[in-house]
Amino acid sequence: MVMPEQIDSTLSPLEATYKTRDVEGIVDLYFYRKIAFRLAQLFAKLRMTPTMVTLLGGVVGIAAGHLYFYRDLRLNVIGMILHICANLLDNADGQLARLLNQKDRRGRIIDSLVDHLIFLNIYVHLALRCLAEGASPAVILLAITAGVSHALQGAAADYYRNAYLYFVKGRAGADWDSSHVLQNDYRQFSWSRNAWDKFLLATYLNFTRQQELLSPRLRQLRDLTERSFHSGVPDSLRRLYRDAARPMLRSWGLLMTNTRMFFLFLFLVLARPTWYFWLELSVFNFLLIYLIVRQERMSRSFLARPDWGPEASAALS
Q1: pLDDT at residue 171 above 90?
Q2: For residues 269 and 131, what is the distance between their CA atoms, to the nearest angstrom?
Q3: Is 50 exceeded by the pLDDT of residue 154?
Q4: Alpha-carbon dihedral sign for residues 43, 49, 50, 54
């Protein structure tokens, strides 16, 4: 397990629970983070662990998804309120982990699994709703492809945001594991003695490999940085990466939870849940492709810098 990061004493108690302002969306900064911080303080007094908060959020999120099944706007609105509460708890678990200095890999994996389970539940209930309303069975295929698209979009956005944190804040500020390190850790666990930890790590390893496949140049840039700068990312590289990557952060934010929730709520109010599936397959996928191409070009330009030496040339070959 990774060591927990230290909280910067120069920041306010609230800001110390942020990843960094650059990767926080406006809704997160001025709504979710402020309320979730108060919840995190309450949970700390109640001696709740971050994992307990994560699981509580999962229960609330699954209840929300079930209420999206009904063609009743009142029930849908209750589901939306529960969905917002689940997202508040999703923010609060990470902020609680920073407050208690209890950040670890296991907690991140469980948090990611719960997030995926919440949206899987939503997709299933939306598809069942469409079938109950007389839609063609083809809506099942539509829901599956939209769900796969969602998974890829979320994985890529998470990977690039963690890359930004790694290069701008340094190793301690990012939850950016490589598949090589995870594979070595995975081999150290036994199914007979560490079944739960091995299962979690197997899930996380598979997820990380998918992320790396989406962005091979960025993975090469990260590996080259690790080999070249053992004491940490130098300030010059931090500034260069920040200036190049920051303009894309807002676009990556469009592929995160807040945007999805906005359109999901909108289409539920309009009683057009299939439009949400089509949005995933069209606009969000086009945005994903555009951002990956742009990010890979940026990574290639960094690898081509002459100050890297022959190792970068080998990476580009």
Answers
A1: no
A2: 18
A3: yes
A4: negative
